Amino acid sequence: MKIYVASSWRNVLQPAIVHALRRCGHDVYDFRHPAPGETGFAWEQCGVPVKSSALGKVSPMEWKLLLATEMAWKGFALDIGALRECDAVVYVLPCGRSASWEFGYAMGQGKPGYVFAFDDTEPELMFMEAKILVNMDELFEAFGEPKET
After folding, report:
1. What's the rounded Cα separation, in Å, for the pair 128 and 107?
2. CA angle, corner 33, sides to 97 and 109, nearest 5?
3. Quick check: 48 and 66 in contact, CB under 8 A?
4. Quick one: which of 6, 28, 58, 99 is 20 to 30 A from 83 by CA?
5. Using CA atoms, how far apart are residues 83 and 141, in angstroms rounded to an integer?
6. Considering only 29-33, 42-46, 120-124, which range has the smallest mean pLDDT?
């Protein structure tokens, strides 16, 4: 199964979830390493020193200009291509706007959605159609047991 993991660069659980799903035998898209030899998209690649943090704010006009750069288009193409090709989407909390958009896009395409919420979190009504997973046992129930490597 092709799985798209939607999360945040700041989420320390994201690499472990990608690894666990791959150990279960799935083809998992990792936005941090979207293709061989590729590191994931960062705003700094667009030639403007924008920090990937809550403090890295830009004006709406600067944001619009950043989205028009070749590097932004390249990063978007990798992510949206994998999102369109996936069979399921896994949303790993905590995360932000991009992951929320990706999750909603995939669910809107009729793909099954799974939400990992390992810590206390604000409830969200619109996740009603998703399956909420709260520990690794539930991950393995949903996606199978890890295989020996």
Report:
1. 11
2. 50
3. yes
4. 58
5. 23
6. 42-46
